[in-house]
Structures are given as structure tokens and as C-alpha cells.
Amino acid sequence: MSETHADLTDDMKVEIQEAYRRWLGNRGFKPRRGQRQMIADIARGLTGDARLCAVEAGTGTGKTAAYCLAAIPIAKAQDKRVVISTATVALQEQVALRDLPDLQRHAGLDFTFALAKGRNRYLCPKRLDDRLAYDPDRDGALFAPPEAEQLAVYRRMDSAFAKGSWDGDLDSWDDAVPSGAWSPVTNDRAGCHGRRCAYYHQCPALRARSDAAEADVVVANHDLVLTDLRIGGGVVLPDPAETIFVLDEAHHLPDKTRDRFTSHVAVRGCSEWIREIVSSVDSMARRFNRPREVQQARERLAEEAGDAPDLIANVDTVVRDLPFQGDEDNQTYRFPLGEIPDELAELAAPLGKSFGSVAGILTDLGEDLENVVEGELQWNNADQVEAWLPTIGQLASRAAGAETLFRDYGACDEAIAARWASRRAADARSDVELTSAPLAPGEILKEKLWETCHGALATSATLCALGRFDRFLEAAGLDGDVGQSRIASPFDFPRIATFSVPRMAADPSDARAHTEEVASRLPRLLDREPSALVLFTSWRQFDVVIESLPDEIRDRCHVQGEASKQRLLEDHRAAVDRGESSYLCGLASFAEGLDLPGDYCRHVIITKLPFAVPDDPVDQAVAEWLEQQGRNPFMELSLPDASLRLVQACGRLIRHETDGGWITLLDRRIVTRRYGESLFAALPPYRVET
What is the DSSP code string of 119-163? Predict the structure, then answer.
């Protein structure tokens, strides 16, 4: 972080205070004690010695307005920019489409803003056109011919985009997209050729990037922030050294970091697409009458990747003999302490080098293609070169990903990581996927974000686990000197919300009996209120319970997976507005980020305490690492994380002062196990019925 230190000046204080007063007056709001405190704490934190702060703000604080009113004037005064990052698309769009326009109109702050998402959230018009005119010589290296269902979706997308009724943003597409249909019609940095593309002026991703390039405030998401940091920072988003980051829903940041820096490789798939790379380059050579650059690429590929198929076959033999565990559909073997056996490491090391060379060759070939498009190289059939750029770019990215995984497996002692092999079925035809996930995402965040940015705020309604910041600070790579503040919710929880734990016969440890009892109780519970949110912790229980519901109840349910999340929410709200009973049913992604005020949610039903799945290989590896250090994984990992998830799930009920209703937990462990007291203590002070 820069050594320059900027205090909270009197001019900054005056501007922040006046903006807050104007906003309150123009909106007809009364000042909230918690919101005022949050503004002050953020302002001090962003101008203090560390310029880093963590603020937990309970529901109803008005944290979005608070952090904008504090961060934007400070950034403007210091000639910096603000990146507001969220974990969910719903909150990202709320900030960009509702909150920031509101502050512009009513707070008197002079700033510009733009919404930014990763490329893979946007349609690539060129690739959509390519899929509608599939060419196996060109596209076979990456994608199979589109299926009939996919073609139907592509035609609807093409029509809607051409008419202007759809903006090319996946999150604004109303219908569910079939599995595997979206990735062929989006793009990434390696596959995009920017201004050289015939569809440049129509490109949704580039339009969004252009809007964000000069904006004072950029509303991004954690995935995009981490992608930018991974490629050096300041490539997609503003330069971190010139930026104040506001990381909303920051409790997601460690897991998002781990996911972004996790590498995967499907073993047999590697061998197949190595051959497809050679086949693609052969097709290119024929298509363009064997130009010198393509011929050289073929020769280099033969030299650098010639041994790869045999090495991959040996890797496949080794990993198939691992003692996998799991059911018939999904099996996993986790390498204890992340240590790769010597036999596998010795095969992985040369594969890492080989795939690195392949990635380099393909990158060079992509540059040759760009030079042809620019007219700096002369090839036959040059008008067809542009169509090959995305394919070569995607293959280069894929090779670079394989390089990362195999280099990691070949030198696994250099980083603490969870490493495992997995397969979907226990038969000889099933491919084995190798994975490496960093166990210390905080170290990555410390190096790439906290030590490079001008300043940062981490905030959420749930940063503290069991009443303490410790779990978040360690996971996020922040030390105890960071400014910390907890702001309580203003809601009168004992008066407006009841937390109920019915007397049940079945314990969740008996999965079948517990599922049967949940299924039998759910219709009566749903009849209690005209609207409800039902939250499950496993797909298996979810599917069984939903399938067992009586038809008259099932018809009122809006079930995760049956349509896009946005469509389910719209249909649910519309039903409630018509005076009909309506119930939303889902898993973890429905347990936070949903804003269902008033009659849209009068009852939250939680089928089970949200402990992590016990066979998750990352959690297993973290627990193993903690045990090795003489620490208690349940108390330091499982219980705090379950507490956070429970608080988040319960938080769907009360969104505004006028809300009220019930929370029902169908899990008696909260009253029968010793740890239940800690879980209760971390909840808001609901009225409790056990």
C-alpha cells in the first residue's frame, strides 16, 4: 500500500455531513443512529493509518447509503476512484440501478457510475452467430454441434437481441438456459479481438467496459475484482493503487478467492483436446493454404506436446487406482495434507512444462491471426481468419489452466492446498478430474488486494461468527489492527419475529427419517402464512420433499431449478400481489441476497442447521490442517460457518420495520446439543418458542 497518508480533513467531514443531511431531507427520512455511526466509522477507517476497515451492519442499518456517502466524497477529495463489489448479481444491480441514482438525485453528490460484470455474463454476438451457422472444421476443437434445444434458445436470443428487447446480459434473460448452452455463446479475454471484431459496436461486454472506463464509481462483483487482480490489477477495473474498494457481502470474499484461484483438469479430456489442438491447427493449415506461421506452430506443437498423451495415459492409470469414496454417482479421493504421491508428481511436473509450452505456442499463433486481420501478414482466405481467433484464444486459456494444475501437482510442497481426484461414476469410462484449491485465500488477498489498494472497506450484515470478527479476519488475510465496528439492527425483533423449534421425533443424523418428517410437516407449516421461503441444505432432501408435496401445495411452489432465479422471484411476487398463496423453495443461494419485504415473506422454514456438507474436500482439508496445528476444526470452522449461514437464512424474514412473521427450524439440535446455546446467542433477539 502507498505510504502517502491522508487524514479525514474538515472539508471531507463537512461534505459527508451535508450530503447525508440533504439525502435525509429530500427523501423524508429521519436520521438513523446506526447509519450515522457507520458513516463515521467508515470515514475514519478509510483515512486512518491502515486505510482498511471491517464493518458489520445489521439489517435495516441502510449500509449501502452509508458506505456510498462516506467513500465517494473521500475518493473524490483524494482524486481516487471507488469500486463497489458485491457477491450477488441481485445486490450489484440494486446498487447500480437503484441506490446510486437515488444518491445522485437526493444527496447532491457529483459523481458518475457504471455497472461492470465479467465477460462470461454477456452474450458474444459473434459466437452466437457462429453457433447458428456451426462449422465443424472451425468449431469442433471446442464445441460439439448445438443440440436442438440449444438451437431453439439461440434463435430466441438472436431475435430478442436484434429487436433490442434483450441487452445480452445473462442475468436479464428471463428463461432458464439449458445446461451447456451458455458457454458457447459467451467469450473471455483470450477469445475476444475487440475493435477488430465485426460485431464490436454491438458487443454487450465491450459496451459495459466502455461505460466503466471513466466512471468515478464502478459497481462490480467479487468474481470480476478477483479476475482483475489475478491478471495483475488495473486491466479490467481501475488500478488498485488509485482505488478505494467497498466490498459488500464481504463474508463471501475468502471463498470466492479460493474458487477463483482453484485449478481443475479432466485427465482423459486433456488427452482428447491435445489431439484436437493438433487437428485444429491442421485444419487451419489447409484452410489458409499452409502459411509459414501455422506450419511452424504445427512443428512446435509436435515437439513440445509429443510426449503429453503418453504422460496423461500414465496419470490416468495412477489416479484410477486411488481408493475413491462416495456413492455410485460421485466419488472422491482427497490427498492427505494435500501431498501428491511421488509417482503422480513425477508425471505431473513435465506435463506442466508441456502445457505451458502449448499455451505459449497457441498465444503466438493467436498473435499471428491478429496480424493477418490487421493486414500485417498476408494469408490466403484471409477473410476467414477472424472466425478462428476465439477458438485459438480459448484453447490457449485451456492449456494455461492445465499448466497451472500440473505444475501445482508437480511441486505441491510449495503451497498449502486441498488437492483431490473426483469422478462421476465408478466405471472405467468415467473421466477423473484433478483439483487443487488454496487453503489460505487470505494470503492471496493480502498480497493482491490489501497491500496494493489505496483503501478498502469490508462490510456485510454477517461478518462476525459467534459474535467475533476472528474467523473473517483470518480467512480474509486481515490482521487485528484493521478498524472493526459492529452496528446493531434497529429492528424490534422480539415484537415482530418468532423463532420456533417444533418438537420433532427425527434427528437429522437419521437422514431418511428426518426427510420423511419434514415432508409430513411442511404442508401444515405452509398453511400458517400465505407466503413462505423454504430453505434446504441438500439437493437430496430437497428433491424428495418437493416431490412428496400434495398437488394443491406443489402448484403454489416456485422451485429452484425450474426457472431462472429472477423469474421465480417475479412469479412469486406476482402471485402474492394477486392475493394468492405462494412459496419459494431453494437451497443455499436462496438463503441470502433475497429481498422479500412485507407480505412477500411471512414465514421462513429452515429444514436443517446449515452445517457444511461433511464430505466437502476443501472443508476436510482445512479441518485436517487445523488438527495438525492442534486446533479444533468444529469450534473454529464448522460451528462459526453454520452460525453465519443460520443468521443469513433467518435474515430473509425481516427486511423493513413493518415486517413480521415466523422462522421455523426443523432441527432440534439447536436445543439438544451444547453448541446450540452459541447458535442462539449469535441470532438477533427473536421471541423464541421451543
Answer: GGGB--HHHHHHHHT--HHHHTTT-PPPPHHHHHHHHHHHHHHHH
pLDDT (average), residues 192-203? 78
- In the numeric block, which cell numbers belong to residue 212? 466503466
pLDDT at position 5: 42
- pTM (2 decimals)? 0.84
C-alpha cell at 132: 447458428
The average confidence (pLDDT) of the chain is 90
Q: Enter the C-alpha cell of residue 564.
A: 431462472
Residue 674, exposed/middle/buried by CB under 10 A (0-12, 13-18, 19+)? exposed
The one-letter code for the residue type at 348 is: A
CB 497 within 8 A of CB 529: no
Over pLDDT 90: what percentage of the chain? 68
Task: Give me the sign of the Cα torsion angle 667, 668, 670, 674.
Answer: negative
Contact 305, 357 (CB under 8 A): yes
Residues 380-421: tens digit of each pLDDT = 988 888 778 877 888 888 899 999 999 999 986 667 899 999
CA-wise closest residue to 252 among 38, 68, 459? 459
**Number of helices and strands in the chain (H, E):** 28, 19
Q: Own/partner pairs for 267-272, CB < 8 Å, 24+ apart?
A: 267/312, 267/315, 267/316, 267/319, 267/431, 267/432, 267/433, 267/434, 268/312, 268/316, 268/431, 268/432, 269/431, 270/308, 270/312, 270/402, 271/308, 271/309, 271/312, 271/313, 271/316
Rounded Cα–Cα distance for residues 18 and 22 (Å): 6
- Output the pLDDT for position 90: 75
Backbone angles phi, psi at 604, to 5 degrees: -105, 120
Distance separating alpha carbons of residues 432 and 324, to the nearest angstrom: 11
Mean local confidence (pLDDT), 334-346: 94
Q: Which residues contact 448 (CB under 8 A, 6 or more apart)?
A: 229, 230, 233
Q: How long a stretch of residues is the chain? A: 690
Q: What separation in angstroms does the CA of 335 have from each of 47, 268, 421, 550?
A: 45, 20, 8, 45
Q: What pairing do the DSSP bridges indicate for beta strands 531-535 and 603-606?
A: parallel
How does pLDDT run across 512-524, given as a tens digit for each residue? Answer: 999 999 999 999 9
Residues 6+ apart with CB under 8 A from 429: none
Instruction: Choose among 643, 590, 632, 638: nearest CA to 613.
Output: 638
The Cα 598–Cα 601 span in angstroms is 6
DSSP-derived letter for residue 135 is -
- What is the 8-class DSSP label of residue 337? G
> Residue range 70-85: average pLDDT?
97
Angle, helices 267-287 vs 308-320, to 10°: value is 160
Q: Hey, CA dihedral for 317, 318, 323, 328, is it positive or negative?
A: negative
Can you state the angle between helices 10-27 and 63-77, rounded to 10 degrees?
Answer: 140
Cα torsion for 532, 486, 658, 641, to the nearest 10°?
A: 0
Question: With 90 as the cut, is the pLDDT of residue 16 above it?
Answer: yes
| Section 49-77 average pLDDT | 95
SS3 per-residue string spanning 482-508:
CEEEEECCCCCHHHHEEEECCCCCCCC
Position 1 confidence tier, pLDDT thresholds 50, 70, 90: very low
